[in-house]
Amino acid sequence: MFQSTRNRAESAALRAKIWDMFLGDETRPGLSQYEIAKQLNCTQQNVSAHIRKSITGWINSNQDKIGQYLAREIQKTFYWEAKAAERYEWAEKAWKKSIGTVKVITKTGRPSIDVQTKETTILNPEVTIKEEKVVGNPQLLRSMNEAAADARAWHERRCKLLGLDAAQKMEMTGPVTITVKYADELPSGDHA
């Protein structure tokens, strides 16, 4: 019994050391599994198993904190998605207001410069007033697109946090043809 307790204690101490080396701190970066295995004179698979157990243990002992963190993150996604929707609505209203006609006033004539005041005036000006149709401010359309993309991104983030976008299984159907060319069959110069 004493032997197994000692082995468990040694294993826990080794796991803590590996975890510390893996995480690093503000003074040194974390090490790769290969680097840890090299320093501790063990296999990378052994290091990987200890790290996996450390992660599992951390998750099990911090379920309440993880739940609170997850709830806060989900709240943030609702908040920022709503802000993006507000930006979209504002840009859409402004864009709709920017559609219509505008009066374009142009003055043509011979320019004259007053030598003393250096002001330019137009002699015998011809004033033309035209109405032009405006299709809307393109910057506002761009803002609408950016806001819609932001709202979509926050929605996708929430789905990921909730696990709603689990990986989907994909299958290949029908025949698959694989062509293999050997180096001696390739034209000269095509050898890698």
Explain how this protein is built:
It is a single chain. It contains five helices and two strands, in the order ααααββα. It has 192 residues and is an alpha+beta fold. It has a two-stranded antiparallel sheet with strand order 1-2. β1 and β2 (120-135) form a beta hairpin. The two termini are 61 Å apart. The mean pLDDT is 83.
Q: Layout of SSEs?
A:
Layout: H1 2-23, H2 33-40, H3 44-61, H4 63-97, E1 99-113, E2 120-135, H5 138-162
Antiparallel strand pairs: 1-2
Helix pairs in contact: 1-3, 2-3, 4-5
C-alpha Rg (nearest Å)? 35 Å
Describe the strand arrangement of the main beta sheet, using strand numbers.
1-2
- How many helical stretches? 5
Q: What is the SS-derived class? A: alpha+beta
User: Looking at the structure, what is the overall shape?
Assistant: elongated
What does the largest sheet look like?
2 strands, antiparallel
- Helical amount among residues, as a percent range? 55-70%
The total count of strands amounts to 2
Strand fraction = 15-25%
